[in-house]
Amino acid sequence: MPIETTAHAIEAAAYFGEHKGALASLARGDIPSCFAGLDRRLNSFLSEARATEAELSMADGPDDALWERGKSEMAEIARAASDLHAWVQTQRCSVDICECRADRLLRLSLRDRHVAHHAGYSPQLQRVATLVIGHSDSLPFAFVHSRNRITHPVRQHSGWQARLVTPDGVSPLYESPGYPGTPLSLFYDDTQACFEAVITALGR
Questions:
Q1: How far apart are the C-alpha atoms of 84 and 76, rounded to whole Å?
Q2: Do the beta carbons of residue 118 and residue 112 sit within 8 Å?
Q3: Is the dihedral angle over the CA atoms 195, 197, 199, 204 positive or is it negative?
């Protein structure tokens, strides 16, 4: 773990007085096997930090050295937390105990390439069943479906099935090896292959 990442974690944990939990664990130099808890904590941390920063930046705040110092320190804390969160977003979880959603890696790859995407909810299954990639109100776009079990979609990964939607209709784009019985060990390579097939088809 980079030294600056540890420093950011220590600063964040100290600010909230945390001695246990995902943030405190990272501050001690322990890399989590799953980043879901740390991601949630940092999202909360950033919301609180930015709210405090905005409050300190009010136009009618007192014009004194302590107030200005508080604004400066809070801005630095928010920047550190943002950097730490960006680092967390690039980390790989240990798949066998991962608590993140199965599409996390796919979403991260799409975000990094600035490809628009959103979840597609299935009323029949009563859960998110597809990931729509591109703008569904314009062609072409793709949708990725999985038969992953909702109880633990990563640990019980079944593979991806992608379809391309064009003016000529819907055509197969990608299907995981052995779908829907894709081995868990293929999770990362399988997800990357699906991602590459989709962005190539969309000309990205």
A1: 12
A2: no
A3: positive
pTM here?
A: 0.57
Residue 194 pLDDT class (50, 70, 90 cuts): very high
Q: Decide: 162 and 194 in contact? Cβ < 8 Å.
A: yes
Structure tokens at 96: 């066998």
Residues paired with residue 171 on neighbouring β-strands, in sequence order: 164
Residue range 96-133, pLDDT digits in tens: 677 666 567 787 788 888 888 887 766 675 666 678 89
Bond prior to 153 in cis (omega within 30° of 0): no
- Give tens-digit pLDDT for 27-54: 787 888 888 788 878 888 888 888 887 7
d(CA 162, CA 45): 36
Question: How far is Cα 74 from Cα 7, in angstroms, rounded to an integer?
Answer: 16
In which element (H, E) is residue 175 found?
Answer: strand 169-175
Distance CA 185, CA 182 (A): 8
C-alpha distances (whole Å) from 167 to each of 66, 131, 140, 171, 197 are 62, 20, 7, 11, 19
C-alpha angle 166-169-173 in degrees, rounded to nearest 5 = 70
Lookup result for tokens 């081995």: 183
Average pLDDT over residues 10-31: 75
CA 35 to CA 33: how far, in whole Å? 7
